[in-house]
Design goal:
Elements: E1 4-7, H1 17-31, E2 38-41, H2 55-63, E3 70-77, H3 83-96, E4 101-106, H4 111-116, H5 124-143, H6 158-161
Parallel strand pairs: 1-2, 2-3, 3-4
Helix pairs in contact: 2-3, 3-5
Length: about 160
């Protein structure tokens, strides 16, 4: 059995946000010494629910502070991102931590978050998720490294579509 911890930085009014984030950074620093197998970061925007807008950035912080734990995203909400950028950021994090990553992708469920990005949530959500996931997966597979030129990605190519 493997056991991990997720950094879900919930807003705690009236505590300052910096105090909440600092506590979670300290908790993340304890994950490896306490024997946890993984550390996960979430993605949320525009709410007090969770102060976690950049899971890959947060995990990169811990990549330089650990040796063995696995890092995961729970989740990267694909419709809010450019797929090439997601692929590049994932490739970089994978290099920084020596391949200790698991990536979870999702399509998002909170209308306030979609509204904050000015993206229609309705019928566009499944299409944007599928399109973005295909391109991001293609970028990761082609790269395994940071892509110097996104024009090398052809999401219609048979070897990239799966």
């Amino acid at each position: 059995m493997k056991v991990g911890i997720a950094l879900n930085m919930l807003s705690e009014p009236p505590r300052p946000d910096v105090a909440v984030v600092s506590d979670h950074l300290a908790m993340g620093d304890l994950a490896e010494p306490l024997g946890f197998d993984s550390l996960f970061a979430l993605e949320h925007h525009f709410t007090g629910y969770a102060m976690s807008p950049a899971p890959l950035q947060l995990l990169a912080y811990f990549a330089g502070r650990t040796k063995r734990i696995t890092f995961g995203t729970a989740v990267i909400v694909l419709p809010w991102h450019d797929p090439i950028r997601v692929a590049e950021e994932i490739a970089l994090l994978d290099i920084l931590c020596g391949g200790r990553c698991l990536f979870g992708f999702g399509r998002g469920a909170a209308s306030v978050e979609y509204a904050g990005f000015r993206i229609p949530m309705g019928e566009a959500r499944p299409r944007r998720t599928a399109d973005t996931q295909g391109l991001a997966r293609a970028g990761i597979r082609v790269a395994g490294r940071i892509l110097p030129d996104p024009s090398h990605l052809d999401p219609a190519a048979p070897d990239l579509a799966s």
